[in-house]
Amino acid sequence: MQTAVIGQPDESKNNVPYTGPIIDMHLHAYHADANGPPPLPFCVPISTMIQHFDPKDTWMEVVMKASENPNCEGLLLSPETDEELIKQTVGQLQKHNITAVLSGEVDFLPDWLKAAPNRFIPSLKFSLPADEMPIDSLEAIIKANNIKVIGEIGNQYHGIAANDPGMDKYWELAVKLDIPVAVHLGSGPPGAPYLGFPNYRVKFSNPLQLEEVLNKYSGLRMSVMHYGEPFIDEMIAMMYTYPQLYVDLGGIMWTYPKAYFYEYHLKKMVLAGYGKRIMFGSDSMNWPGLIGKSIDIINEAPFLSLAQKEDIFYNNAARFLRLEIKK
Ligand SMILES: [Zn+2]
């Protein structure tokens, strides 16, 4: 039997889909109307949905118009109620045998957890400045709600860099509680500053901004959500220097055309030798169909061996989360 060597794709097994259990590191507990009034159509990949824009128009209106007249194969429609969104999401988790790290607000997580207690790992959504709170309050919330991950930490959407000193006390708490953190670094929706995130900044996607944090808090267990795309070289440099650092794929497989995602993002990280620290993440929000789509795109990557897929879909997340490996 041939075994995959780190960084060396095993082309002999590249057409075998992975069908075992999956850990989705990046699932959102959203309300049905979180992205606008449902049902909302959604086309992927999103980078090519609107290919040019004249600033005489308003970006928000152009986006809304485009979603009124969707023109794509495999159109996804968002469920109309919270109950239906939860039900369809759980249906996807069951169909694909997924355990998902579920990022949400503490008041809404229980609605999801009770729908499928064994399918979710509760994760606390956190962003400054809105979630600024005394450290003992955050500790109490984490303990009272059995929170296993702090994330998605969405400071970038609010113009706050990963190394902002305002986060120090929270990093300290994460180390003290030995709880992993998951930080958003990467692109938001196209035209994010014109879609309700006026302080979103591209420059804060850069993983180099984590350097002081990882240096100062060497016990911190951190995953970079969306792997700081498209700053791949910077991400690889950070994974090289900070061997504790993991990444999740966070929906980027359906953000860009998959040939680009494969060739310049996923393949590059795998070839650099980091196939043991890349974790699957669907970034499913209001469209549960994104979960199956995300799985298919990883399974269809022509350069991944079955062993590498198994690492990405399950083993790496199980190790990062320190779960008991069930297989
Ligand atoms: Zn994100």
From TrEMBL:
Q: Which Pfam families match?
A: Amidohydro_2 (PF04909)
> What GO MF terms are annotated?
hydrolase activity
Q: Where is the signal peptide?
A: none
Q: Does the keyword Ribosomal protein apply?
A: no
Which residue range or ranges hold the Amidohydrolase-related domain? 23-323
Which UniProt keyword terms apply here?
Answer: Hydrolase, Lyase
Tell me if Hydrolase is a UniProt keyword of this record. yes
**Record protein name field:** Metal-dependent hydrolase
